[in-house]
Specification:
Immunoglobulin-like; four-stranded antiparallel beta sheet; 11 helices
Amino acid sequence: MKKILLSIVICLASFCIYAQNVTIKLIDSKTGNPVKYATIKTGKYSGVISNDEGYFTIHTEDKKLETISISCLGYQNKTISIQKIKDLNFIIKLEEAINQLDEVYISNKVPNADSIITKVKSKLAINYNSNLNKYTIFRRTTNYVDFKNLEFEIEKASHVKKKKLESANDNLKALSKKIRESDIVQFEDFKGEFYALNKDSSKIVVNKATQLLDYKNDFSIEQIQEKSQNIILKYLDTTKTYKLKSGLFKIEDSLSLKDENSEEDHKKEYEVTSLNEETRSFLRRSQFYENSFLNKLLSFALYEYTYEDVAYNNTELTHVINFKPKKGKAKYTGRLFISDDTYAITRVDYKYYKNRHGAKVNLKFILGVKYIENLSSGTLLFEKDSSNIYHPKYLKRNTGSYFYVNRDVKFIENSSTRNKVSFSFKIEGDNRNKEELLFTANNKLSLLDFEAIKQEKVVPYKQLSKFEKTIWDNEQIIEPSLEMKAFESEE
């Protein structure tokens, strides 16, 4: 990132401005570590959540807002006035809620983890109802790409002079160097209403959407293909068109030199169907149905459970249970947080167990392709509504993979001579994705309500070259990370 240190200093300084929007940091009173995923109530049905770095923003233009209430698993609840927050320089310390098993359970008999899981399963239908719900949501997706190896080379070109080939290859090497040295990151935000009929059917209405991206350093595989193609085409006969043939890319029947300044032609729109399907797929991780992600975590055939501790969550006694795979086909380890009163799961932390992984394709020596899903972790938080039904409050998922592609590409001239250019393409690296979904309100739906909702085909988004704080002013969103606030694309 360019000018990152200066941007962070500016962002930190802005926390202390007496303004309508006030950014606050939560820390552990003993360790000073940030307290993440705390619930901050600004009203009976309004509030936000602290981000991975412990930050959150509240809007103080409402004169009725005099205090906020903070609750977080493992910490004592805290109610504090807005004026007191200012006196504390916008840093709030939370005290740990000390838990002693022998004090909670006088018999000194540690609860049985399997018995608790059995009770959880027996009460799923009472505690959760994922059908016919309307959720007000805010979703943020962060994408990273790290190219470890990137090689382009024109190997054969019968009708191109040697000097032109050398010049083209030099330009391709320069492109490879620039890509490998670039900080490739992209942030996508949107807010709207999500209407769930059931686990397989939903609609979405997007009210606002933004994309934070350095367009000059947009090096998705598609963009890399286009940029390298344009370099090669410059050294060919630009009056002709070409067919591009490869086992990796689709065949183009009429490929010609394009204006590299393609930002002008790029439509700044999201396909709403894709947003809907992606959001529904993510939401499924917090739902209970046959063979769902959470149901599998509650399977005695797949996992073994051990009782770890008790904790307090908003003054409610909570069991902390560890899980790990019992069978080879189970993949995850983590912790389940279960209410002692209702036996509802209120939080799940999970990650791949040891060397487990997701999909794997290794055809490196046959087709020049290798792919391994090597990262999957996340957190699911639930909150009880006025009807004692638990709904997702905040979902986070981190995914990542290793990729390798080695392909030969041919440019075939669309002419009677059918001149050819052979081009080798080798790419290797890692990509990471962080997806977050915040639920700020929920209401029950009727079937007629659901059917009446109209879902648009596309929705425009505002493309940003640097973070703009004012865009989401007075909105209940996930507080941006310092990295996001410091983001600034090249001029």
